[in-house]
Design a protein that fits this description.
This protein is an alpha/beta fold and about 210 residues long. It folds into 2 domains: about 10-95, NAD(P)-binding Rossmann-like Domain (Rossmann fold), CATH 3.40.50.720; about 100-210, N-(1-d-carboxylethyl)-l-norvaline Dehydrogenase, domain 2. It has helices at about 10-20, 35-40, 75-85, 100-120, 125-130, 130-135, 140-145, 150-165, 170-180, 205-210, and strands at about 25-30, 50-55, 65-70, 90-95, 190-195, 195-200.
Length: about 210
Amino acid sequence: MEAVIEDEPAKKQLISSLAEIGYDKLLVSNTSSISITRLASVYTTPEKFMGMHFMNPVPVQPGCELIRGFLTSDETFQTVTEFCRELGKEPIRAEDKAGFGINRMFIPFLNESVKVIEEGIMSCEDADKTTICLGHKMGPITTLDYVGLDTTLAIAQVLERELGPAYKPADLLSKLVAAGFYGIKNGRGFYLWDHGKKVGINPAVQRYLRK
């Protein structure tokens, strides 16, 4: 299983390097949006390659999206489905199209939540309280910090390239990533974090809101 940065060239480099050293067994990618068929094109045995997209935060979320590439065999798909269940996850089947199913639906929601912040309609805290109405376990702004702002931006860019301008990333999201704010992974996203606990709103977000 590979789970490197959500970047097609980086993933292809890793996958092809495995092929170069003779690895030809079952391999899955934890990509959130990149074509499984394109990734499999650099693997020695594309019939043994497919997508296994875990949801964040992985220990909490029960679902796992399973994506077949154009050449993924029935045997590979069955084996990975059984493995998914062994991990205690619920298999969610999706076709190999940009964003698959979950991120095709969810990234626009997260992206729109950023626009609500940057337009001053809600604070980060109030936007997160929408979970009371929606039934989600985690608010959209906190989710962005957990997923990673850089990862979310990369997924949104894939969706924009393949599906059109409706998926264009929010300006605030792009600016935060450009400034090195990636979320909980480096302690700085929409919120500031200390050992996994929120310690306040990122001042850069508050400054943006005052413009």
